[in-house]
Amino acid sequence: MNDMMLSKELCKSIECIDEIERKFGSTIYKDLKSGSEDVFRKWWEAKFSELPVPEVYIEFSKKVDKFNFNGLFFYSLNKEIENNIYDNNDIDGLPEGLTDYVIFGDYDLSWYAQSRMSGKYVVLSKPCSDVEKEFDTVTDLLIEALSTVV
Q1: What NCBIfam families does the annotation carry (predicted)?
Q2: What is the DSSP string of 9-52?
Q3: What CATH number should be reported for the domain whose range is 33-147?
Q4: Residue range 86-91: average pLDDT?
Q5: Which of 74, 95, 98, 135 has the fewest CB neighbours in a 10 Å radius?
């Protein structure tokens, strides 16, 4: 696992959330299934060729695949389980207004996504798909999302 790609602030947020989970006899750490990274890369390059592969999201998923804490979900890179990134980005199943985005996760009334047009990472309002916040990096998007549940 390449923690070097994950910022100190992001690692600290993950550790803080895991500390809470451990108090209840659980953990947020879930390893990514072998081969999932390659499947994801091929899928991403075929479906979203206009965008670079989000390397930090891969590293995040290697550490906490299918992140789920207090209602905040980040989708798994493992195609074989529920709440995976592939099913959640099936164009036919996406609500109107979301087809211009790659959806990484959701929480309460927000989607965490990347704009296919601008490449920016965004927090979208679930009711209307309006951009609430915008970030230059997936790291900043993840930090913002994790801060909502701690």
Answers
A1: YPO0640_fam
A2: HHHHHHHHHHHHHHTTT--S-BPPPTTHHHHHHHHHHHH-TTS-
A3: 3.40.1580
A4: 89
A5: 95
